[in-house]
Amino acid sequence: xxxxxxxxxxxxxxxxxxxxxxxxxxxxxxxxxxxxxxxxxxxxxxxxxxxxxxxxxxxxxxxxxxxxxxxxxxxxxxxxxxxxxxxxxxxxxxxxxxxxxxxxxxxxxxxxxxxxxxxxxxxxxxxxxxxxxxxxxxxxxxxxxxxxxxxxxxxxxxxxxxxxxxxxxxxxxxxxxxxxxxxxxxxxxxxxxxxxxxxxxxxxxxxxxxxxxxxxxxxxxxxxxxxxxxxxxxxxxxxxxxxxxxxxxxxxxxxxxxxxxxxxxxxxxxxx
Length: 272
Known about the structure:
The protein is α+β, with helices and mostly antiparallel strands and about 270 residues long. It has helices spanning about 15-20, 55-65, 160-165, 195-200, 265-270; strands at about 75-80, 85-90, 95-105, 110-115, 120-125, 135, 165-175, 175-180, 210-215, 220-225, 240-245, 260.
């Protein structure tokens, strides 16, 4: 069996990757795989590039909504088809959070957990982490563009604020409801958007439809992205729900006895 390669297991492509697991022995992912997409940083999102000409008020509302993902605690759940689910609870102000990715194909399953405590990042990755322990990751050694769910300064597992900075044609479709398109060619590495997805999507990658809603306080509550079909698989919309803003997030840092340092093979599997 090959060493699992995690670099393509992104949030938007995860449903397809999970299906690809069918070609491996159960529990041993193959091909490109990367952990969930990395999260939005603490900086507010910039306004979508060309959307202001369409509906400046909608652009402003979405920018304010997503900027809160970098300033207050929240929970999120992302799904894409029946084979992919990512959950997370984070507090950007305290730089703590947890995330769990579960993906499945006909013949295999994959589960990756991420825990962030300040500047320390820990993973539980099949094939690398022993049961009941955590693998400590040197963030500086992570390849550029590789997403492992959470890392210091990037605490939204979907990276929504940066993803929406590539939005165009943003418009209001009702009270607290918005729609537009995303240019995924400007979002490689964001929300798990891999170069493979972009290349195989062709011109579609520049005009990917999305919808978003905000709650009664103007905070992002739901985001749906119509990711194009790739690798001959049926298209699986990515749906992300945000909730529990301001609710405290408690993270217990593993003890020294529960931690091992990540081996070189883990970094290599991530593409370094």
